[in-house]
Write a structure and sequence with these properties.
The complex is a heterodimer of chains A (433) and B (424). With 433 residues, chain A is α/β, with parallel strands linked by helices. Chain A contains twelve helices and 17 strands. Chain A has helices at 7-19, 124-130, 187-206, 219-222, 225-235, 248-261, 277-282, 308-314, 334-345, 350-357, 359-364, 411-419, and strands at residues 2-3, 25-33, 42-50, 53-58, 68-71, 76-79, 81-86, 133-138, 148-156, 164-174, 241-245, 265-269, 287-289, 319-321, 382-385, 396-401, 404-405. In chain A, the strands form two sheets. In chain A, strands 1, 2, 3, 4, 5, 6, 15, 16 and 17 form a nine-stranded mixed sheet that branches. In chain A, strands 7-8-9-10-11-12-13-14 form an eight-stranded mixed sheet. In chain A, a hairpin with a 2-residue loop joins strand 3 (42-50) and strand 4 (53-58). The radius of gyration of chain A is 23 Å and the shape is globular. Mean pLDDT of chain A is 92; it is low at 1-23. Chain B is an alpha/beta fold. Chain B has two domains: 1-58 and 366-424, Urease, subunit C, domain 1 (Roll), CATH 2.30.40.10; 60-364, TIM Barrel. Chain B contains eleven helices and 16 strands. In chain B, the strands form two sheets. In chain B, strands 1, 2, 3, 4, 5, 14, 15 and 16 form an eight-stranded mixed sheet that branches. In chain B, 55% of the residues are buried. Classes of the chains: A alpha/beta (433), B alpha/beta (424). At the A-B interface, helix 9 and helix 12 of A face helix 9 of B.
C-alpha cells in the first residue's frame, strides 16, 4: 500500500528527478512513518524527497538509482514539529539589546510587526532544531498600544537567512489581570479597546477615510490608520486574532468576538478552556495551551488542570502547544515534546498529541498547504527519532527542513565536546579543545 | 496522619542508593522501612498492596524549592513586594524563609501528587545573603511548624552574580557589580568573625555577672555558619564565580555546602570535587540570562561522571512536578555523548544526594531498613513522561493516592473555587 500519491504525481516526480541533480534528492527508507499524524504509522515506509518537497511516501515507493538514501532502521519518523507560541528569532539572552519582541513606546499597536527583527543567527535556533522543531509561531509580546501586541509571524527554522515562512500570520492581543494596568486597570477596558479598534477598522473598511478617526488623545495610536489597517485581514477572515487569555470570562469574551464580528480567533493560554470546551469547538476556535499548567499560577489561571488538553481535544477543539517561563523560546522544542507527553499522561491520546505538535499548528497558523503532514507536495520537514519523541530522553538523529539536512550541533553540544570528562587530562585549556 | 503497617509487593525498586531490584517488596511499619527484598512475608494485620510491576522509589527530595515563600497565585502585589526576597538590604542574613511560608500554597498538593515528600524552601537570590532556608515535610498542614522537618540543620542562602548586583545596582545602591558582590560578602564575614569572637569570649569567661554582648540577627546567622552550625547553599551560575566563592569561603573558614543552579559546574568538576562541594542543578534551563548562556544539558552528567556530587532541583515552584523527567532528559543527552548512567544511579540525584546535602541521610533518601517510610509508588518507570505517582507515603502514612479521591488533599485556597468545579 502506498499513501497519498497517485500515479500521475509519481511520474512527474520521476521527471523532475531526472532533470534535476540527484544531490537534491533524498530517500528515507525503513521508516516507521507517521505520514499523517493522528493516524497509525506506516511500517517499513519509504519517503522520497525531491527539491525540498516530499515527492512520495509509502511502503512501495521506488527509489531512483543514485539517490542518497538514509536508512531509518524502523525508527519513528514524523513531520518536523511546530511550536505555537515562541519568541524564537526575537531574543538571545533576555537583555534589552537582544530582545525584539516588544515595544513600550511609539506609534505601534496592532501593526507592530516582528518580521523585521528575525535573527537567523540566533543561538536558540540550532537548539530548537536539534530537538526536532522545524516551524514556530513567533509572537510579539507587547506593543505600545495595549491590548494589542502586534503581528505574529511563522518561522521556518531552516539554516541560512531565509527563516521567515509567513509574515502577518495573526494579530495578537493579550487580556487579563496581569496586564490590566496597561489598559487603565480593568480587563473591561481591554475588551472595550479591542472592540473599539475592530469597530473602527470595520467602518474604515466599509467607507475608507483618508484621515485617522482620532488624531489626539489616548485612542490616537489605537485607531491610527496603520494600526486599523493591520486589523483589516482579521475582519476579512484572512488571518486570526490571537487572544492571550486564561480566565473563563475572558475566553467567553473572545468567543463573543467570533459571534459579533465573524472573525477567526485563536486562544493562547486558555487554562480554563476546559470549562468552555464545546463552545470553543462550535466556534472553531483553536487553542494553544501550556500542558504543564496544573495550578493557579495567577488568579486568572485558578481553573488550570493537567487534563485541559485531553478535555479540549475530546470536545473537538484543535489544540497545539506552548511552554512557559524560560522554556517558551530557549527550550521551544524539548519543552513542547515533553509537554505533549505530559498531556498524554493526563488523558490525551498519543496520536492526538503528535497532531498537536504538527498538523494542528499547521492548520491554526495557516501553513497547512506546505507543512504538517508527510504528504506528497509538502515541504520536506522530517525528523527521524532515536525513541518516542514525547519522552524527554529521546532526540532526533536526523532533521530535514525543506528537504535539507540540518546540523544537530548547537552551542551546547559544542561546549559538551570541549568539556567532556574524557578531556580533563588534556594539558591544553578547553579553548583549544 | 493515620498509618497502617503496609507491604508493597511485586514492584521494581530503585532504592535511592544505586540499586535496582526487580519483583521486590518493601515492608513499612510504624513509619519506618523495616525490610526491602525479593520476598517479604507480610506479618498478620499488615495491609498488602500489589504494585503490579509498578516502580518504587524513596520520596523525592527537592533541595531548592520556593513553595510557600513564592506562593501561587502570583499577583501584581507580588510584583512589587514578594515574600521570597527581603530586598531592603543586600545582607538579609537575619530573615528566615520559615517566616514567609504560606502553608495553603496550592502547589504543595500538586508537588505531593508528583512524589515530592521533602522540600528545602530557600529565600530568593536578590540578596548577597538571602536568609535562612527551611526543610519541610510535604504534609497537608495548617501551620508551618507542622511541616518543619524535625531537627533539620538550618541553611543560609547566598547568591552570586546578576541577581544581587541588578537588584541593588538598579536602585543606585551597593552592590552594583560582581566585584561589589564579593566585597559585600567579605565585609559581612569580617563583621561575623568579630561578632563570633565577642560571643566566644563571653562564653569562655563563664561569668554569670557579665552582661551578654548585644544580639544581632544578621551576625548571629553568619557566626553560626562560621561555627559550622548552618550550611551554606549558594546560588551561582558561572564557573569563575564559583571558584571565587570557594576562595572567599577559605578566607573566612567556612564551607560551601552546595552551589545551586551551577550551570557551569561542568567546567570545574575537579575543583568542586576537591572542595567537597555539591551542585543542585536544572536539567535544561539556559540562555534566559547572560550568566546562563553556557548551560548544557549534560551538566549534571559531567559532574557525576567526574566523581562529583549532583542533585536536581526545581527552583520554579511547579517544576518539581517533573523532576524524574528532568533526570531522563539528562540521561538521554549524556547517552548521546557516550556517558551511560543507569536510572538506579540517576535517581540518587533526587534521593540520597539531597538527603546528604541536608544532613538527613540517616533518616530519608533511601529505601533501606531504619529509614523513614517516605515511599513513592509509580505507575511505571518514573523516568518516563507517561508515568505518574500513584501512591505517596510519608512516615508510613498515605499522603496521596491517585486511585482514591478521598486521599487527594487540596489546600484551603482550592476550596470553594467555582473555576475548579465542573461547569454549570
Amino acid at each position: 500500500m502506498s499513501l497519498s500519491y497517485g500515479r500521475s504525481v509519481w511520474s512527474s516526480v520521476l521527471c523532475l528527478a531526472s532533470i534535476c541533480c540527484h544531490a537534491q534528492s533524498l530517500a528515507i527508507t525503513h521508516a516507521t512513518a507517521y505520514l499523517h499524524p493522528g493516524r497509525p504509522p506506516l511500517q517499513n515506509a519509504t519517503i522520497l524527497i525531491v527539491n525540498g518537497k516530499i515527492a512520495a511516501a509509502g511502503d512501495s515507493v521506488p527509489v531512483p538509482q543514485g539517490t542518497r538514501t538514509i536508512d531509518a532502521h524502523h525508527h519513528m519518523v514524523t513531520p518536523g514539529l511546530m511550536n505555537s507560541d515562541s519568541q524564537l528569532g526575537l531574543l538571545e539572552t533576555g537583555t534589552d539589546d537582544t530582545s525584539d519582541s516588544a515595544v513600550a513606546t511609539g506609534p505601534f499597536g496592532a501593526a507592530f510587526d516582528v518580521q523585521y527583527a528575525l535573527n537567523p543567527n540566533s543561538t536558540l535556533l540550532p537548539v530548537a532544531r536539534a530537538d526536532g522543531l522545524t516551524r514556530a509561531m513567533v509572537m510579539p509580546t507587547n506593543s505600545a498600544t495595549p491590548p494589542f501586541d502586534g503581528l505574529g509571524a511563522v518561522l521556518c527554522l531552516s539554516e541560512g537567512a531565509g527563516i521567515l515562512d509567513r509574515p502577518h500570520a495573526a494579530v495578537v492581543a493579550t487580556v487579563g489581570g496581569m496586564v490590566a494596568p496597561a489598559s487603565g486597570g480593568s480587563r473591561s477596558a481591554q475588551w472595550m479597546l479591542l472592540r473599539m479598534a475592530l469597530d473602527a477598522s470595520s467602518a474604515h473598511l466599509k467607507r475608507p477615510v483618508r484621515n485617522a478617526p482620532a488624531t489626539s488623545g489616548p485612542s490616537a495610536t489605537l485607531l491610527s490608520p496603520t494600526n486599523l489597517a493591520a486589523l483589516t485581514p482579521v475582519l476579512e477572515r484572512k488571518i486570526p486574532l490571537v487572544v492571550n487569555a486564561s480566565r473563563e470570562s475572558d475566553l467567553r469574551q473572545a468567543i463573543a468576538l467570533v459571534d459579533d464580528y465573524k472573525i477567526r480567533v485563536v486562544l493562547v493560554g486558555a487554562d480554563e478552556g476546559w470549562r468552555v470546551a464545546p463552545l470553543l469547538a462550535s466556534h472553531n476556535i483553536p487553542v494553544v495551551l501550556d500542558p504543564y499548567a496544573s495550578t493557579s499560577a495567577t488568579y486568572d489561571q485558578t481553573g488550570a488542570r493537567l487534563d485541559n488538553a485531553a478535555i479540549l481535544d475530546r470536545a473537538g477543539v484543535t489544540i497545539s502547544f506552548k511552554a512557559a517561563f524560560v522554556h517558551v523560546s530557549y527550550n521551544a522544542g524539548i519543552a513542547i515534546r515533553e509537554g505533549a507527553g505530559i498531556a498524554v499522561a493526563n488523558g490525551l491520546p498519543w496520536a492526538e498529541a503528535l497532531k498537536a505538535l504538527t498538523t494542528n499548528p499547521a492548520v491554526t497558523w495557516g501553513i497547512e498547504n506546505h507543512y504538517g503532514t508527510l504528504d506528497a507536495g509538502k515541504d520536506a520537514d522530517i525528523v527521524i527519532w532515536d525513541g518516542d519523541p514525547l519522552e524527554p530522553s529521546s532526540a532526533p538523529t536526523l532533521v530535514l527542513i525543506r528537504g535539507r539536512q540540518v546540523s544537530l550541533e548547537t552551542r551546547q553540544t559544542l561546549l559538551e565536546k570541549r568539556y567532556r570528562p574524557a578531556l580533563t587530562a588534556n594539558p591544553l585549556p578547553p579553548d583549544y579543545h | 496522619m493515620p498509618r497502617v503497617d503496609t507491604v508493597i509487593q511485586n514492584a521494581t525498586i530503585f532504592d535511592g542508593i544505586g540499586h535496582k531490584l526487580l519483583h521486590g517488596s518493601i515492608l513499612l511499619r510504624d513509619g519506618k522501612i523495616i525490610a526491602v527484598g525479593p520476598a517479604i512475608r507480610a506479618p498478620a494485620g499488615t495491609k498488602i498492596i500489589d504494585a503490579h510491576g509498578g516502580y518504587l522509589t524513596p520520596g523525592l527530595i527537592d533541595v531548592h524549592s520556593h513553595l510557600g515563600d513564592f506562593a501561587a497565585p502570583y499577583t501584581l502585589q507580588d510584583a512589587k513586594v514578594s515574600d521570597v526576597n527581603e530586598e531592603s538590604d543586600p545582607n538579609s542574613a537575619e530573615v528566615w524563609a520559615l517566616h514567609s511560608i504560606r502553608v495553603q500554597d496550592p502547589q504543595f498538593s500538586r508537588v505531593r501528587a508528583a512524589g515530592v515528600t521533602t522540600l528545602q524552601v530557600l529565600p530568593g537570590s536578590s540578596d548577597l545573603f538571602g536568609g535562612r532556608g527551611v526543610v519541610l515535610k510535604n504534609v497537608p498542614a495548617v501551620t508551618v511548624q507542622q511541616m518543619e522537618f524535625p531537627d533539620a540543620m538550618p541553611s543560609l542562602k547566598m547568591a552570586c552574580g546578576e541577581n544581587p548586583k541588578y537588584t541593588f545596582g538598579q536602585k543606585g545602591k551597593f552592590p552594583s557589580s560582581e566585584m561589589g558582590n564579593v566585597a559585600g560578602y567579605r565585609e559581612a564575614w569580617i563583621a561575623a568573625a568579630e561578632y563570633k569572637r565577642t560571643w566566644d569570649d563571653y562564653y569562655a569567661k563563664h561569668d554569670p555577672t557579665l552582661a551578654p554582648p548585644p544580639r544581632n540577627l544578621k551576625l548571629e546567622t553568619l557566626a553560626a555558619v562560621l561555627r559550622g552550625q548552618i550550611l551554606v547553599d549558594m546560588h551561582c551560575y558561572r564557573a569563575d564565580e564559583m571558584a571565587i566563592m570557594i576562595d572567599v569561603a577559605k578566607e573566612f573558614g567556612y564551607k560551601i555546602n552546595a552551589f545551586h543552579h551551577a550551570v557551569e559546574a561542568y567546567k570545574i568538576v575537579p575543583l568542586l570535587k576537591q572542595n567537597g562541594v555539591c551542585v543542585a542543578v536544572w536539567a535544561d534551563w539556559w540562555g534566559f540570562k547572560v550568566e546562563a548562556f553556557d548551560a548544557i544539558r549534560t551538566n549534571a552528567a559531567f559532574v557525576d561522571a567526574g566523581g562529583g556530587c549532583v542533585m536536581l532541583h526545581s527552583d520554579a515552584p511547579i517544576s518539581a512536578e517533573h523532576l524524574p523527567q528532568d533526570a531522563a532528559l539528562i540521561l538521554g543527552a549524556a547517552r548521546r555523548v557516550g556517558i551511560d548512567i543507569p536510572e538506579e544511579h540517576a535517581i540518587e540525584w533526587l534521593t540520597i544526594n539531597p538527603a546528604k546535602s541536608l544532613r538527613l541521610d540517616s533518616r530519608i533518601g533511601a529505601l533501606e531498613p531504619g529509614k523513614n517510610a517516605d515511599v513513592v509508588l509509580w505507575s511505571g518507570d518514573p523516568f518516563s513522561v507517561y508515568s505518574r505517582a500513584t501512591m505517596v507515603f510519608l512516615d508510613g502514612a498515605v499522603i496521596y493516592d491517585r486511585n482514591d479521591p478521598a486521599m487527594q488533599p487540596i489546600s484551603d485556597f482550592d476550596v470553594g473555587q467555582p473555576a475548579m468545579e465542573p461547569p454549570q
